[in-house]
Amino acid sequence: MILDIYNNIKTLIADTLSSDHKELSHVFDIAQNKFQGSSKGYGLLPNSANEIAGETQANTMSQGFKIILTDSYISNNLSDAELTTKTLQMIEATETIFKELVLKKCGSPAMIQNVLNFAVESAVIAKEDKVILVEATFDVRIKISF
User: Fold this and answer.
1) Does residue 44 register a pLDDT over 90?
2) Which of 27, 61, 118, 139 is the most buried (most CB within 10 A)?
């Protein structure tokens, strides 16, 4: 069940982003990815999960996920304005992804009650690797069948 939801979310992310975004090879250790030239990447990580008792007549589980977006660049001398623009574009991309996840119930409408608690974490700019990293978290409320 969770694996299906995870795979559906990854598909929705890929479909929502432009075709110049490539899936990251390493999502648990972002530094292992090869950031060469100007490229954009994405990844998805499962976060913690817990049961939510008594919310409905059926049992419900809240499963957290983290979206990771990266944007590498070539220039050594990006101005603050350029870095800010790239960062804001990435934040907007996470917001667009979240809207799609809500509208399409993560591609699993029969299992998903709601998608909520969207939060964007502070951007990380790794100047030595010439990459900007933006992470966003959200929770998925899943109907549990026994």
Assistant:
1) yes
2) 139
